[in-house]
Fold:
Amino acid sequence: MAAVDKKTFKREPQTTEDAGSRGQQQKRQRVERQKAQPTGELKIDARKLWEVLRRGDLDAEVRKVKMKEMMDMLRGHIKEVTFKHDMSRVVQTCLKYGNDEQRSEIAAELNGSYVDLSRSQYGRYILMRILKYCPKYRDEVIKSFYGHVRKLVRHKEAAHVLEECFAVYANSKQKWNLVAEFYGREFAVFKSIDGPKSLDAVLAMTPQKRETAMDSLKSTVTPLLEKGTVQYSIVHRALLDYIRFADPSERQQVIETMRELVVEILHTRDGAHAAMLCLLYGSVKDRKAMLKAFKPYLQRICCEEYGYAVLVEALDCIDDTVFVNKAVLQDVCGMMSELLADQYGRRIPLFVLGGRNPHYVGSDALQVLADNDKVKALTSKKDASVRRKELTAFVSDSMTEWAAANTTKAIFDPLPSQAVNEILLRAHGDKSAAWQRVLDLVRMDVAQLGADHVLISPIANRVVTNCILAEHSVPKSADSTLPALPESNPKFGSEVLDALVDSEQLVPAACAGAFPVRALLESPVTGERAKQLLRPHKSSIEAAMKEASKKRIFEAILNIL
Structure:
């Protein structure tokens, strides 16, 4: 046979018919391979039915019929097919659209395989659905993890299921039983029903277990820190307990290891608490590294339910206020409007001005701050009032600018009005622009505006009343570290009275039962003058009281007159 010349040889072009037949042939071969499997026919039929069942626009009655067909088909074979990608979706759909009886049937058939499911790339999604849709089997799923927690938390797939159990569905006792396995083999084997529910309680009852628990915690926590897998709340609990109870040298080693990772644990209560302790016990180098890691995510941290407390701790314990200003406060000032409009974000600038005020700082954070004071007395050299004064100076310009631009509306809003109040009382520098906005509102017609007037509004009148009181007395505060009010503050009470007299609104305000009028009458600065102006109109105030539904404020004003 003559040799073929490779240069002149050409392959015949493939026709569309050939290509189609080849594709169909491959599909047939794939189906034949599937049918050859023990559950091949079942999978093929189930997937066809699933294509109908998964449709969102399917009629409810039709869905019931199709669900019954699917359950009749899968019954007794669910455990065999759940670990495959395509069939995992089928079972998930059954859990989503099935009734309680059908869901329980699936969960019961899978019982005993929950740990294996959690480790499966596709099976873990079925377990998530069981937790969501089968309340009766949640305890069974959680109990199945007992004795396996230390391995599961390091598993790529199982860790997500463990986190779902711990953070969303477990009660306090179940949470303890899960996390207690980090403290030693004894806790993994013996689960006490009426025993302690925290490491504090365990060590209070049996102090001799402290060394064993710390060694076990260290062996669990260290690999997780080295791998950077610290995003799970159960790990946050373990980190918190280790930092609280470890020896100083071991605690310092952990803080050095995790200072770049602290930003990843701020979204849970335990994680934020652990981060606060890292700042408290950390060296100057550790603290700076942590704040630098926060910087790209600062606005998000400020506005997190628990994350804001970590920044509060930084403001409360770090002596280098110049660095704190560069790392935190400069960015805070740049997004002042966004923060003061946020439920949690506002707490950062308001903490700088108002300190540990329970109206601004959550009770959990306040408790941690109070518990940390003993340690702070050893780690901090700067006087707290001096630190507060320096921090206030950094944020004052930005906050007074915000107040000048927003007071007219913000004073009537519950949360922003608190910011207006603190800025007028405690911010440094010139506050005349913001205060003038308040006086403009005071001069407006009381009879025309009624409950919308700044002196009558239950929200806005508090700000005006607090300012009047601040002219002659120190505002009440739970924080003893707050410095005295700036001497450059406006003469609040006197200027409010002048504005009311000039606009002829003093008597209408008294007849409307305005709380700031009572404050003016009680003030040693404005009291005598206000009494002289209102006594001739006592009968008008009495007449207004008869028509009013709430009479106590009128009675208070008349008693003073």
Summary: The chain has 36 helices and no strands. Residues 119 and 158 are 5 Å apart (CA to CA).
